[in-house]
Amino acid sequence: MSDQKGGNQPANNNQGKKQQKGGNLAGGGGTPPADDKKITSRTADYSQWYLDIVRRAELADNSDVRGCMVIKPNGYAIWENMQRAIDGLFKATGHVNAYFPLFIPKSFFQKEEQMAEGFAKECAVVTHYRLKSTNGKIEVDPEAKLEEELIVRPTSETIIWNTYKGWIQSYRDLPLLINQWCNVVRWEMRTRLFLRTSEFLWQEGHTAHATQAEAEAETLQMVNVYRQFAEDWMAMPVLVGPKSDGQKFPGAIYTLCIEALMQDGKALQAGTSHFLGQNFSKAFDVQFTAEDGKREFPWATSWGASTRLIGGLIMTHSDDNGLVIPPRLAPTHVVICPMGRSDEERAPCTAAAEKLAAAIAELPRDDFYGYQPLRVKIDRDTKNSPGHRFAEWELRGVPVRVEIGPKDMEKSACVLARRDIPGKEGKTMGVPLDVAPQQIDALMREIQKNLFDRAKKARDATMRTANSYDEFKQMIEQPGFIWAHWDGTRATEDKIQEETKATIRVIPFDGPKEAGQCMVTGQPSEKRVIFARAY
Amino acid sequence: MSDQKGGNQPANNNQGKKQQKGGNLAGGGGTPPADDKKITSRTADYSQWYLDIVRRAELADNSDVRGCMVIKPNGYAIWENMQRAIDGLFKATGHVNAYFPLFIPKSFFQKEEQMAEGFAKECAVVTHYRLKSTNGKIEVDPEAKLEEELIVRPTSETIIWNTYKGWIQSYRDLPLLINQWCNVVRWEMRTRLFLRTSEFLWQEGHTAHATQAEAEAETLQMVNVYRQFAEDWMAMPVLVGPKSDGQKFPGAIYTLCIEALMQDGKALQAGTSHFLGQNFSKAFDVQFTAEDGKREFPWATSWGASTRLIGGLIMTHSDDNGLVIPPRLAPTHVVICPMGRSDEERAPCTAAAEKLAAAIAELPRDDFYGYQPLRVKIDRDTKNSPGHRFAEWELRGVPVRVEIGPKDMEKSACVLARRDIPGKEGKTMGVPLDVAPQQIDALMREIQKNLFDRAKKARDATMRTANSYDEFKQMIEQPGFIWAHWDGTRATEDKIQEETKATIRVIPFDGPKEAGQCMVTGQPSEKRVIFARAY
Hints:
2 copies of one chain form a homodimer. With about 525 residues, chain A is of the alpha+beta class. Chain A contains 15 helices and 27 strands.
């Protein structure tokens, strides 16, 4: 069924278990084979490191269904936090959610040519609507063949614009500002957990406007919403601007994107916002009566971001010890580890941990936390060494760990350890228990900022300018973003990609504006664009 | 493509529009044909009344994809509130969310016989993974036929238990307490918006336990979670207990359910919790090492509730004026209508409305509101009469309407109108603006309670006891629940259904315990069960 590895390998699942099994580290569960414990270092094999993190931190698994992943509770909890934050940003900009059918009749698909061409090769097709059981064997019922095949949505422009036809009559019905959270299917031959899977979860916004200017303003607004989410919540710096024509969405006039740089120096497209012009309103014959009484075609945008963001989050911040999750998206903000070599020694530490946990949960809910209470866990493990326990929580990326041992109790104090700075350097000793909640709150904000600053510094350090194609070819062998002049043609872009595996990632809004000459053809170039190898 | 009506009819969509179009009632948009305005009365045609409410309040539409609905922003906002509340109850009982593939290989399906038989006749089947475009015409690529067909999940027991095989090794991996929010497809020949559609949204919990007792306790816990949600949030009273064998889930040992009564006296199954025994662990050969070292099969439960609940909500509370939504689930809690015959008259009323809206949004966020701020709208309509404006908000089911006119302003007061009691009787005049927020908060809680009490009273009034089959046959022609003795056999249940269209809805935990004789066969019966005609 599957050409992918790992679908059935034993894995620990610690989530979804009642805490009642007291002896366990929350990370506990069955002991996996020793090999499974290993995390390959980033320098040894970045790609394997990524897969090790996803497996060891129990974020996702390959399934036995070709190309489809199982998002495990630890991974899904990150997605839930992402959804809550993104959805809040959408609602703050006037959008509402709705839900459209999973299936798209084949004839709809055909109506917008570019899109049909763009997605035809990766579509799952439903052809029958019934099985039959003969002597306990289940077969497709040949008599239940659909008159028209249904495509499992790879994206929903067609079914949504077919629906908008019934919703849009007059300028008073505009703008329509609608978003959908759902699953989509794009049949991928080579998959990679979170980054590229046949089924994935995402949101797709689809808006309709009376004027071109308004639709273009929306396209820009939404890419800036993605920028805001990426930078303020994921602590992941991004470049923002249009894609080249060669990289735009099939069916779009142009595509704006946010583009991030992973630690290995490869680029990741993290969110896109498309100006669709009147392509879909014309394809589905959607017209409205304007204020002046004329019939016009509305202007469209669409924009999406997916579970791919989880891959981006991992590859931006995590280290050889495991996950690093920015506090604003962390499923668990704080873990408190009471310690002691005997029940007697542990008891007061555990009592202090419980009191502290309650105090942390009472911290004011503000926008930083999405108006949610801080999420705190107590690690009641009594079997494993402190070192082992701390390593497990580091693996899981909990931003702050609190240690309370007998020596700390003597001073009514605790130790705060921050995940973004492992080891002694990241520890604050002797923090009085009564001020610990406020210090933890402050530390969360500091960690969030530090992760962004660090990622931005790392990305900026890779940004170079190539002044000739030869120079470019050398530079591209080193990780990172490269500024270079390009003549604006698809042919040149294709040539560069063929020869260097690099693509134009984005034409940043904020870049330098000097004109020059294309590094390949010598033709005029308005300004430099950003090249990189990409996921 | 579709055999359903209404997919393309003009509809107003007011959601998803920027508020910037100031002159509009939020309910505004294009003026629909006069006919569209009508809501059939419940006594004239309950079934048409339901469809009119769904259409006029813009909750959902049939789509052009057979049997699939479009959930419009007004309807989806209710679903989001339901999801938030239900998800909170799941998390409070130790569950976490995850995500499993949309597709189920046909061979998995076959492994649990009862389930295969139960769902085979309504499965959408994916047979190909590619289209090809020939001269602009899109066709299924015959060369891209799947080796094994994929079923679009009608429910996920099989794919999830196939996955659990990799997750469960030892008793320390148990219990697994996992829930999934997703879409499912069951090919329905006769559909009805929200109540029965080919694709619907739901949650499905799937748990694994070391012992039978623990799994049965979970089954019971989860049906009580559904009861809690139905009664405390939806204000919809339910009966709780097992289904008869004839009505249980295919693959379950037994099914517990919550059963509600709609205003027309028909029953609605609103949530089910299944004890699956070891059926799925054995079918997928999932075993764990128990504390004593023996290999054992874990015990399973599954439980689900769907967008069908929106249909139940409508049919429990709404009236001939439109939707009635209990405050705890209302997308908009309060609408404030400033009035006046001129701009001069209106200006101070609008200013007061804005001040009041801000004060209401500042009310403490507590559990009653799911820790969300109260959602307030200001109706800035200047074109329509107050009567027209009020009717629109009644149609949409907003629990409390605040009216501020020039006369009220003279006294720094306002009028509060409650949706559950239309007309003058439900109005409180002369409420001082400075205490209005607190009064509104109190009113929300009163409305929530009143809706539940009223629905319970209406339901209880229909509950009758039949002492003979003849009596039963007469009674069943009147709406409601009927207590009757039954001999516990499938044959008798089938006979009753055939002859009266009534089914056993539930064997309530809380019912009277007197033994008696089956009304049909005279065989012994332990206690009476609940019959009704059902959706």
